[in-house]
Write a structure and sequence with these properties.
single chain, 84 residues, mainly alpha
């Protein structure tokens, strides 16, 4: 459970993030970086992030967090919020 301070930070993050969120398409052709993701069902999600040239990829999915992908930078939401 988030404390009141984190709730306020999360609300502020979402307020600002929603102005930058863009829906992107997922290319049909696989990309080499996908092979580091264990779950084949997750690979199109990474492909969409790569296609969008995302700087960060926020997730709670261990298949992404434990992969060797460095671009985009894969972070949990809490790690992202703790960045200075």
């Amino acid at each position: 459970m988030l404390n009141e301070n984190h709730t306020t930070e999360l609300e502020a993050f979402l307020f600002h993030a929603l102005t930058y969120i863009h829906v992107v398409s997922t290319p049909e052709d696989p990309m080499d970086a996908e092979n580091t993701i264990r779950d084949p069902k997750d690979r199109p999600i990474l492909r969409a992030a790569l296609n969008a040239h995302a700087d960060y990829f926020l997730t709670g999915d261990k298949d992404f967090l434990e992969s060797s992908v460095t671009d985009p930078r894969i972070l949990s939401a809490s790690t992202f919020l703790d960045m200075e």
